[in-house]
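Hi! If you just cloned this repository, the fastest way to understand the data is to look at a raw example. We've pasted two of them here, unedited. The first protein comes first, obviously.
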Amino acid sequence: MIRKRLVLLALTMACAMTTASWAAPVLEVVAESDSMIWNAVAVDDDDRIYVAGPRWTGSRGPSVASVASDGTLMPFPDAAWNADGPSDPTETRFVNVNALRRDGKGQLWIVDTGVSGFGGTVLPRAAKLVVVDLGSGRVVRVIPLGPDVARTHSYIDDIRFHGEHAYLTDAGDPGLIVLDIRTGSTRRVLDGARATTAPADRPIIIDGRVLLGADGGPLRVHADPLEVSADGRWLYFGPLEGPWSRIETRWLDDPAMSADQLAGKVLPWRDLPPMGGSVMDPSGNIVYSDLASNALIRISPEGDTQTVIVDSRLHWVDAPAFDSRGRLYLPVPQLDRIGLFNGGEDRVRRPVRLYRLDALPWKTMR
C-alpha cells in the first residue's frame, strides 16, 4: 500500500511539473500607440527597442522609431530620415518601410520598399536598404535597389543574412533578390517561379472571411517570409499564403547559375498556412504566426510542431524578433483591419501594441 502511494505521488508530481513547464506564456505589453501601426521590431544588445511600419497602413508618426523607457517614441535615426514632404528626396528619406533586421555586426538594416502605396508603384530612387550603426545611431550605408531588381510593381518585403550575402523577398513581383554585402551588387533570382508566386487557390482567411485586396479580389502576397537555417545551409521561403520551399544558399550565392539551373535546385519544404511573419532562434527553432487562429507555432530543428500560444490579442502578428536574452517580441499591426482592406473603413482596435513573451515552453523544458 505504501509503495502504491509513493508511485501515485511520483506520478502526481511529474504531471504537476509537466503542466508548469508547458503553461501558456504571458503576454507583456512593452509599447503601444494610438496613431502608429508597427509591423516590424528589432532590439539591440542594450535592450533598446526599434519599431517601424509602412505609411500606407494609415500610420501617423515616424516610419522608424526608437522606444524610450517611458514609452516615448523618437524618430530613428533622426527626423530627417522620417520626413514626409513631397520635396524631400526619396533616396534620403523613408518612403514605406516594411522590415527591420539586425545583422549580428552591430548594425540595423531597414528595408524601404519605396512604393507609392500598397499595390502601387516603386518611386524613382526610393527602394533601398538603409544600414544604421546602433552604437552611434548614424546611417553608415545606403544600398539602392535599382529598377533591375525593384521593378515597377515590386514590394521588397524582408531580409535575412548568411556570410557575405543577404537575401530579400519580393511580395509584389514574385522573386528573390540576392545581395553581395561587400560590393552592394544585387540580382534577381527565381523570378516568377512557382515557389515565389502566391497560389491562386490558397486564399487568406481570417475571422472566417477571405481577405480582399484593394481591387476587390482575394489578396495575393508573393514571396514574403524567409529564414536561413541555423547552419546557413538552407534558405526557407514562400508566399504569405504558403507553401514553403527551400534551396541551398550555395546555389543562390553563385552568380554563374542560370535561371533554369537554380529553379532545378528548389525543393518543397513544408505546407505552412498563411502567416504574418516568422523568426528563427540561434538553435534553429522557427516561430511563425498562424493568421487564421491568432496563434504562434514553433517548428523545432527536428521538424516537430508545437503551439506556443493562442490569444485573440495576437491578431496578425507580423515579423516577430528575439532579443539577446531569448525574449520574443511580437508587433501586432492588425493589417487585415486597416481601411485599405475594408472598403475604406478602419477597423483597427487601438492602441496598436507591441507584446513580449519572456518564458518560452521549449526553453523552460531544457
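Ok, and the second one:
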Amino acid sequence: MIAYIKGKLEIKSNTYVVIDVNGIGYKIFMSASGISQIGETGEIVKVHTYYYVREDNISLYGFNTQEELKMFELLLSVSGIGAKSAIAMLSEIKPSSFALAVISDDVKALTKIPGIGAKSAQRIILELKDKLKTEQAITKDTEPEIKSVIENNSKVEEAISALQVLGYNKREIEKALSLLSLQDLSVEDIIKKALKILGM
C-alpha cells in the first residue's frame, strides 16, 4: 500500500523513527541496526515500508534496503513469527547470511538469534525452503557462459538458491551473476555481490 516514505528525519528512538513528509509525521518501526544506519536527524531519508494491519494493530515497519524488506515479509509468512520477532531478527542477521542459513539448513546460525530456538529455526528453514519462487533447474534461455559456470560450480547453485529464498527469480539472478567474476568467491560473497547488482 505504501512502498516507501521519503522526507526529513525528525526523531530517532531505540525502536522507531519519525519522518516528516510535507508536515505529516510518519512513525515507522525499524530494527536497531536499521535505525543506526538511516542517517542523522534533519537529513532527508528514504525508507522502504511494510504496512502491517491486524485487528488490534496498524503499524508501519521500515527498512533501508529491499532485501531487508523481503526478508521481513518472508519471516512473517512463517507460522509463529510476528512483526516484532521478525524486526528483532533483522537486527541480528543480514539478509545474505539469513538466506544462506536457510538454504544450507544451518540451524546453528539461526539459533544464535535471541528468541530463536532449535525448533523455531527448523520451522523457518522448512517453510522458507518450500517458498522458492522458481524451479531449481537451469532455464532454457540461460546464457551459455553462466550456464557452464552454474553446471560446474556447486557454490553458484547454492548462491542462486539462497537468492531465490529472498524472492528474486532465476532469470534476474543469472543476469546479475553474469556480471561477476565468480572464481574464488565464497557462497556468501557471491550472494552479497549479486545483491548489490540486484538492488540497483
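That's it. A detail worth noticing about the second one: The longest strand covers residues 44-54.
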